[in-house]
Amino acid sequence: MKRASRENPEIREFILNNIEQYPDTMSSLVVKKFGVSRSAVSGYMSRLIDAGLIVAEGTTRARHYKLKKLVDITFNIELFDGLPEDLTWIYKILPNIKDERKNVVDICQYGFTEILNNAVDHSVSKDAKISYGKTYNEITMLIQDYGVGIFRKIQDDFNLPDPRAALLELSKGRLTSSPSRHAGEGIFFTSRMFDTFAIFSGNLLYRKTKQDDGWLVEIEDQEKYVKGTIVLMIISTNATWTTKEIFNQFQGDNLRFRKTHVPIKLAGYPGEQLVSRSQAKRVLARFENFSEVLLDFESVDTIGQAFADEIFRVFNNYHPETKVIAINTSPDIDQMIAYVKNASPKVPNDI
Ligand SMILES: Nc1ncnc2c1ncn2[C@@H]1O[C@H](COP(=O)(O)OP(=O)(O)OP(=O)(O)O)[C@@H](O)[C@H]1O
Ligand SMILES: [Mg+2]
């Protein structure tokens, strides 16, 4: 008999909050953490299945669990110039999300309307597919168009050598194909509001995941070619941050002059070392439009002297109004930055 009355709510909560991360090993994890028997854990599991919160897949021996989609909606819409993205939000998404925390609803509204507006204004696609899903603790939104593809469009519009270069520019923000109608802020802020933000386009996947102490940025070459653009946004229903807090993080001295955050790993190709001045110049492009640039060295171990000199000394000489701050640096990188900053070459008149 399943006795829910003697349940420990802490165990139930633990299972629900961790099952996506440990779909195969959850039972052993609970046994170890809470000192309960295996059969007690399977009682918890089957009650959560009965309650419609999780689903089990696979045979008994290879059983794994995942959170059940409590809401799962997919629909297509026709895209046309002037489509009011806020009405799609109000009539199609809001009725499903309205009972969530206000800050989460606001973030979803921001992301949804920005990304749908992008499909309308930039993709040249006739239609789009939209999905909205919710599990016990997560909201997932997906917007897919079948147009030119975001990396391809940026590459073409800004004369860049390849789609990866488009990604570096996109990450800086303030990049737009149509400055008269747009500010180039939508993706920059949307990608920072969600726990996971991913773009699939062409053969490239870009994924940004919130970690305890920052962001994990991943770029992967995909076998499967995606025509157009797919944007995926996932947020925890327990998220505590607000749209305003995210905007404020990047507020500069005045509204037209703000801060940015650039993952330096986007500047290199797999296996490539960051050594040259030309690589540094790619990184530095448009930095003068920002008051402060956080240059994030996450997963980069070393940089070359010329690369460092161009960014931390030469650029500063020409653009003292833009502060470039290195974060997540290895000891090697710290040393190189200190070295180039202290090296002041003699100017011709001194000789
Ligand atoms: N679905 C898409 N298809 C093709 N290109 C896209 C798509 N979404 C974005 N882009 C490209 O990426 C650029 C940056 O998009 P982003 O939303 O950050 O800024 P924006 O739309 O130009 O300006 P804002 O969002 O501030 O109105 C766009 O200018 C466009 O070149
Ligand atoms: Mg936009």
Descriptive report:
This protein is an alpha+beta fold and 351 residues long. It has 3 domains: 7-67, Arc Repressor Mutant, subunit A (Orthogonal Bundle); 71-249, Heat Shock Protein 90 (2-Layer Sandwich), CATH 3.30.565; 258-345. It is built from 12 helices and 10 strands. It has helices spanning 9-18, 26-34, 38-50, 85-97, 102-122, 150-157, 163-172, 186-193, 243-249, 277-284, 305-318, 331-342; strands at 54-57, 64-67, 71-78, 127-134, 138-145, 196-211, 214-236, 258-263, 290-296, 323-327. Strands 3-4-5-7-6 form a 5-stranded antiparallel β-sheet. Strands 8-9-10 form a 3-stranded parallel β-sheet. A two-stranded antiparallel sheet has the order 1-2. The mean pLDDT is 92. Residues 114, 117-118, 182, 186 line the site of magnesium ion (MG). The site of magnesium ion has 5 residues, from helix 5.
Secondary structure blueprint with pairings:
Elements (H helix, E strand, L loop, with lengths): L8 H10 L7 H9 L3 H13 L3 E4 L6 E4 L3 E8 L6 H13 L4 H21 L4 E8 L3 E8 L4 H8 L5 H10 L13 H8 L2 E16 L2 E23 L6 H7 L8 E6 L13 H8 L5 E7 L8 H14 L4 E5 L3 H12 L9
Parallel strand pairs: 8-9, 9-10
Antiparallel strand pairs: 1-2, 3-4, 4-5, 5-7, 6-7
Helix pairs in contact: 4-5, 5-8, 6-7, 10-11, 11-12
The chain binds adenosine-5'-triphosphate and magnesium ion.
